[in-house]
Each structure stands twice: as structure tokens, then as C-alpha cells.
Amino acid sequence: MTVDAGAQITDLRLGDHACLTYGEREDLLDLTAAFVRDGLSAGLKVVWVSDEVAAQAVSELVRRGIAADPALASGQLAAVPSEGRLLSGKAFRTGQANEWLNSQLSACQQEGFQGLRVAMDMSWALQPVTGVEQLPEFEQGLAAVLAGGGVSVLCQYDRERFDPVTLGSVAGFHTRSVTASTYHADAVLRICRQYAPPGVRIAGEIDFRAAEPLALALAEAIRLPGDITINLAALSFIDAACTRMILDAARGAAEPRTVLLECSAFVADRFASLGAAGLPGVSLVSVDVG
After folding, report:
1. Is the pLDDT of residue 214 over 90?
2. CA within 20 to 30 Å of 4's CA: 17, 33, 170, 290, which one?
3. What is the pLDDT of residue 2?
4. Nearest one of 225, 235, 159 to 202, comparing CA atoms
5. pTM of the prediction?
6. Fold of the CATH domain 182-286
7. What are 233-245's pLDDT values in tens digits?
8. Taking Cα atoms as reference points, which of 84, 90, 154 lies closest to residue 120?
């Protein structure tokens, strides 16, 4: 099987069997939200299998601008735990998991949706689960479920917790490989693309030494259609040079769309001192980073 290693989450289509590997929970939630958002907008039914509490999973979608509550009410969206779907009494069996997935596809067709998207957080396999050795068999068998083209599956693996042998054993069964698009990452600073809502996410501490990856991230964000968000909520320090660079990019990209600068109170003060609050099309929002 040929694996497309360069796919973006926004590239996924019906028939895809994608493997999402992530290193941070924020990446998982951001990429999953984009997968859910695009599925809902395309008229698909979307099921998110996760051991997150359902209400918490939905609140994460809402926080990212997705109208999750109406989709839940209409049956277009479901947020469900792995128990009773992929697992039964802390036991995993490939046949049962495939039966559940096929039942979801049949229900989707009967309900008149255009297709089905399923996001599956595979962290259940890190627990003491009977039958977990069948995981590669399950991933391989998904090809038969996907053959009809009416469903796409996003399997989510935490690369910090799954061992390399397990990741290697399942990687080749996927047709797409998806990760967060990262411009810079070290112990102090991380700059990456944000998918839901579209834009850039910057965390840690940033100064003039990161000017090159920051400029690239901003340039690519500006090329995205519609409103963009520059998420600085997890940024604890920014110097004057980077503040001006971000503000100049926001000024140039704003109107007729909106550029949202989402910051902690400290970082918001830095932008406000340079006149960000008065710029047309630029919205400066201070968030509680608790």
C-alpha cells in the first residue's frame, strides 16, 4: 500500500484511511476539530470515538468555532467512547470493531447523509486491554470497509506514548499520513499551523531569533481564505521585533476579513501599546490562560 506522507488534515476525502500522529493534546484537538468541521460542512455524518467525556469533546469543538450542538441534535455528529464500539468489557476483537463500523455506515446511508467520517483516538490500546495484539489486523482490515468509498477513517496515535514498534506495525496500512504542520519546535518555542479556526498557533517564548519561521508561518496563514486567527494564548514572552512583525502581517491581511489576535493579558498589552486595538479588521482578544 502506498502512503501519502504529505497530507494535510484538510486534504482528506471519502475513502481515505489516515493515520494522525501527534505529540501534544492541542494538536490532536485542533486536527480533529478540522476533520469534524469539514465533514459537517460537506453534509457527512461524523463520529468521534474518544475517551474524552462527550460534553468535554463537544466543548472543544465549540471553542474552535464549530456548531457542534445543532449537529448533535440532528444526529449528524456523535461523540462516543471506545467502550461499546471498539471495545467490549475492556476486550478488543477485530470482528466486533469492524461490525460496529459497518453498522455506522449502514445507519449513515439510511439517515440520508452523503457519507461518513470516523475519528478514532487509539489511546484505548495503551490500557490493559485483552486482544490489543489484534490492532494491526484491525488496521489492515479497514481496507475492506473503506472499499466502497462512502467512509473515511482518521486513526489517532500519540507518538509520545505509543512505542515505535506499534506505530511501525500499523503505519503501512494507512493511505494517508497526517501531522500538524510545524514551522519551529524546541524546548522554548513552538510555531505551528492552526486548522480550527484557521491560522497560526505560537506557544512558549519568542524573540528576533525566530524571525524566519515566524515570517513563513504568517505568510502561509495570510494566504488562507477567510478570517484567520493568530493564537498566542500559550505565549509567555514576545519581544518588540516579533510583536511588530505579527502586527504588520495582521494589518496587511485584515479587511474585508478579520484577523483575530488571541493573547494572554500580558501579550495583549504589548500589542495594544503598538495600536493594535484601533486597527480596522484586527480584533485583539485577551484570553484567560489559567
Report:
1. yes
2. 33
3. 41
4. 235
5. 0.92
6. Transcription Regulator spoIIAA (3.30.750)
7. 999 999 999 999 9
8. 154
